[in-house]
Amino acid sequence: MRIAVSSQGTDLTSSVDPRFARAPYFLIFDTSDESVEVVNNEQSVQAAHGAGVQAAQIVADKKVDIVISGNFGPTAFATLSAAGIKTATWAEGKVSQAIELARNDQLKPTDSANVERHWQ
User: Fold this and answer.
1) Are 66 and 57 in contact (CB under 8 A)?
2) 20 inside domain
3) In total, how many domains does the chain have?
4) How far apart are CA 32 and CA 17, in angstroms?
5) Which residues of the chain, if any, have pLDDT below 70?
6) Whole domain around residue 60: which residue ranges?
7) Edge-to-edge strands, sheet with 86-89
8) HEC string for the chain
9) Contact 88, 10 (CB under 8 A)
């Protein structure tokens, strides 16, 4: 399973960023080999418009199975859903905690966006 987490930093001890589209980084953890890939999301952070679609496409291109973040706007949620990627809302701690919750099937998948457009 490949797990993407919106992150405020570049390592597993970083805090989960409550923003999906405007998170500075995505940390992608692969459970098959315990590897971590850091993905810079600067282009979405700087985007005037379309950050949700842009960020969703970045993680979709990485072939992730689930994305964990505090919030998903409607365009990001729709893009991830169309790509067959599950989403879960959680931003109460470190990236490593989010990964463990996902690995142990302790996160409830979201079924819709939970914030309006342009939430920052």
Assistant:
1) no
2) yes
3) 1
4) 25
5) 44-45, 47-50, 117-120
6) 2-103
7) 35-40, 25-30, 2-7, 66-69, 86-89
8) CEEEEEECCCCCCCEECCECCCCCEEEEEECCCCEEEEEECHHHHHCCCCHHHHHHHHHHHCCCCEEEECECCHHHHHHHHHCCCEEEECCCCEHHHHHHHHHCCCCCECCCCCCCCCCC
9) no
CATH code for the domain in which residue 74 is found? 3.30.420.130
**Would you state the pLDDT for residue 115?**
74
Spatial separation of the C-alpha atoms in residues 25 and 5, rounded to whole Å: 8
Domain-located, residue 119: no
**Inside any domain, residue 6:** yes
What pTM value is reported for the model? 0.91
Cα dist. 90→19, 61, 87, 101 in Å? 10, 22, 10, 9
| Token duo for residue 102 | 């996902």
Task: Decide: 55 and 21 in contact? Cβ < 8 Å.
Answer: yes
Cβ atoms of 40 and 54 within 8 Å: the answer is no
CA distance 6 to 74: 17
**Does some domain include residue 65?**
yes
The pair of structure tokens assigned to 77 is 């949620």
